[in-house]
Amino acid sequence: MAEQVGPPRPRPGTELPLLGDLVVERADAARNRAAILEAARCLVATEGVFSVEDVARAAGVGVGTIYRRFGDRAGLAYAVVGLFELELQKRFVYGPPPLGPGAPPAERLRAFLHARVDAVETQRALLVSAETSSPTVRYETGAYTFHRVHLVYLIGQIKPRANAAYVADALLAAVAATLITYQRTYRGYSVAGIKAGIDDLLDLVLCGR
Predict the structure, then answer these.
(1) Nearest to residue 132, comparing CAs of 176, 84, 194?
(2) Can you tell me the distance from the alpha carbon of 149 to that of 100, in angstroms, rounded to the nearest whole number?
(3) Measured on CA atoms in the order 20, 110, 106, 151, is the torsion positive or negative?
(4) 8 Å CB contact between 116 and 107
(5) What is the tens place of the pLDDT at every residue in 87-132?
(6) Helix, strand or coil for residue 20?
(7) Less Cβ around it within 10 Å: N or C end of the chain?
C-alpha cells in the first residue's frame, strides 16, 4: 500500500502557524501569548536556553498558563521558532526564485535546504532544545509537515519513480538542528561547508531517473 503523504495531526502544543491560518483569540489571551513568546525569545537570546518557570516569571503569568497554552516546553520552543517559520514559508511559497516558484524543481530543492541551514543557524540552541525534548517531536509539528509536503512535490517532479516521501524525510534529516550543531561544533564545518555537503548529497540522491 502506498504511503499516505498528507499531513498527520500535529502533536498538541507543537502546532506552528502556517500561511493562510487565521487565529482568533480573546484580547487577554493574545496579550499573554505575546508576552510569553517575547519572554522566551529574550531568554534564548541572552541565555541560550529557557525554563518554563523562567519564562512564566518574565512574562508575568502562571506556569499553568504556559502549559495550558503550549502543552509543554517543546510546544513553547516550537512556538518561538514559529516566529521565524512564517518568514521562510512566505519566501518559498510566494518569493522570488530559486527558493520561490519559477525555478526548476532541482534548483528550488537545493535553495530550500540551503535556506533551512540558514534558519537553523540563527536559532540553533532553541531548535536543539525543542528537537531533543522527545524522540519524535520534530516530526509532529505543522512546520515539518509543511516542509515535507513541499519536498515531496519537488522530488516527484525531479524523479517521478522515487519514493518521494521517504527521500523527503531523509533530506530533512540533513537539516536537523541536532545534526547541524554536531557538524558545527565537533566537525568544525562552516555554514558554507554544510551547504556544499548538502549539494553533494543532492547530486547523489537525485542522479538518474
Answers:
(1) 176
(2) 15
(3) negative
(4) no
(5) 788 888 888 999 999 999 999 999 999 999 999 998 888 888 778 8
(6) coil
(7) N
Do residues 126 and 87 make contact, with C-beta atoms less than 8 angstroms apart? no
Q: What grid cell was written down for 73?
A: 516546553
- Which pLDDT band holds residue 2 (cuts at 50, 70, 90)? very low
- Determine which of 10-24, 122-136, 191-205 has the lowest per-residue pLDDT on average: 10-24
3-class SS letters over 99-160: CCCCCCHHHHHHHHHHHHHHHHHHCHHHHHHHHCCCCCHHHHCHHHHHHHHHHHHHHHHHCC
Cα(87)–Cα(84) distance, integer angstroms = 6
Give CA–CA dist 137/135, Å, rounded: 6
For residue 163, give the 3-state DSSP assignment: coil
Least confident of 70-74, 93-97, 106-110, 174-178: 70-74
How far apart CA 20 and CA 170 sit, in angstroms, is 27
pTM above 0.85, yes or no: no
Give me the count of residues in the chain.
209
User: What is the amino acid identity at position 198?
Assistant: I
Sequence-distant (6+) residues with CB within 8 A of 10 are: 140, 141, 142, 145
